[in-house]
Amino acid sequence: MARIGAEERKQDFIEATIKVIAEYGIADATTRRIAAAADSPLASLHYVFHTKDELFCAVYESLINMPQQSLQYVPTGATPAESIGEMLRQLVKWFTLHPERATTQFELFFWSLRNNPEMAARIYAVSIEATHQVADFGAP
């Protein structure tokens, strides 16, 4: 059997977690179910991600960057209001094209608000930073 590198295995677990949360909801996203979806031993999941919170945070961070990447197409010379309008249209389009990822992103954020406010603050900060990078309208 071929050995899978740690980074590739990490991505497998992130993708499996997205699918499991989208299908079963976060309450039923057990580590056993996630490992099975990744076609990996449970021990490997716990080796790569020491806690479920660590896994969920990695999933959210990977998801927050995806819709932000679609925002690079804001027209040059547009006013801030026009740019924000275009950004919102692109985000809605991304969420429509990727319902599994959007569902998982929202599930994780609302779960963290209820169960782990510190994690919610971290992922909110990641979201704000990503938005600031895209929405830099020439501010000093």
Give an overview of the whole structure.
The protein is mostly helical and 140 residues long. It has one domain (6-134): Tetracycline Repressor, domain 2. 74% of the residues lie in helices and 0% in strands. The chain has 7 helices and no strands. It has helices at 6-24, 31-37, 42-48, 52-69, 80-97, 99-115, 117-134. Helix 2 (31-37) packs across helix 3 (42-48).
CATH architecture: Orthogonal Bundle
Could you report the average pLDDT, rounded to the nearest whole number?
Answer: 84
Please estimate the helix content.
Answer: over 70%
Residue stretches low in confidence (pLDDT < 50, at least 5 long) are none
Radius of gyration over alpha carbons?
A: 17 Å
Class computed from helices, strands and strand pairing = mainly alpha
- Output the CATH topology: Tetracycline Repressor, domain 2
InterPro entries: Homeodomain-like_sf, HTH_TetR
Protein name: Transcriptional regulator, TetR family
Keywords: DNA-binding
GO molecular function: DNA binding
Keywords, separated by commas or semicolons:
about 140 residues; mainly alpha; Tetracycline Repressor, domain 2; 7 helices; about 75% helix; elongated; Homeodomain-like_sf; DNA binding; Transcriptional regulator, TetR family
Brief sketch in words of this structure:
The chain is an all-alpha fold and 140 residues long. The chain has helices spanning 6-24, 31-37, 42-48, 52-69, 80-97, 99-115, 117-134. It has a single domain (6-134), classed as Tetracycline Repressor, domain 2.
